[in-house]
Amino acid sequence: MPVENDVVLIYLEDKPLAFARIEDISRDAKAGWYQVKLLFLQVPLRALTWILRDVYIDGAEFTMDGKRMRLEKVVCPEEKTEEKKPPARVISLADRKKK
């Protein structure tokens, strides 16, 4: 289940719509429902709170205004071994000023 600070991809009618970061998940007054604050990663930034069941946060399909929606947790892809670069050397700016 996605948790706070996870990035999710939001689908509308099976088409990717937007990326959002989960800012907060808290219980709603209605039993079995949660208030999920989402920061939509777009310009300009926009924060919305959706009220969802835990299964919807987990990726089950739900409807909003009669449209099918779902959330999918984004997992950072692994780097391929041959694409890994050697670690960069850190240069101290304080040491450079002393010279």
Word description of this protein:
The structure is a single chain. This protein is mostly beta strands and 99 residues long. The protein has a domain at 7-75. Helices cover 10% and strands 45% of the residues. The protein has helices spanning 54-57, 93-98, and strands at 7-12, 15-27, 33-40, 46-53, 62-64, 67-73. It has a six-stranded antiparallel beta sheet with strand order 4-3-2-1-6-5. Strand 5 (62-64) and strand 6 (67-73) form a beta hairpin. The chain starts with 6 loop residues before the first strand and ends with a helix.
Helical fraction equals 10-25%
Using DSSP, what is the number of strands?
A: 6
Our estimate of the beta-strand percent is over 45%
Order of secondary-structure elements: EEEEHEEH
Spatial strand arrangement across the major sheet: 4-3-2-1-6-5
Condensed summary:
The protein is mainly beta and 99 residues long. It has a domain at 7-75. The chain has 2 helices and 6 strands.
Task: List the main descriptive attributes of the protein structure presented here.
mainly beta; six-stranded antiparallel β-sheet; 2 helices; 99 residues; 45% strand; elongated
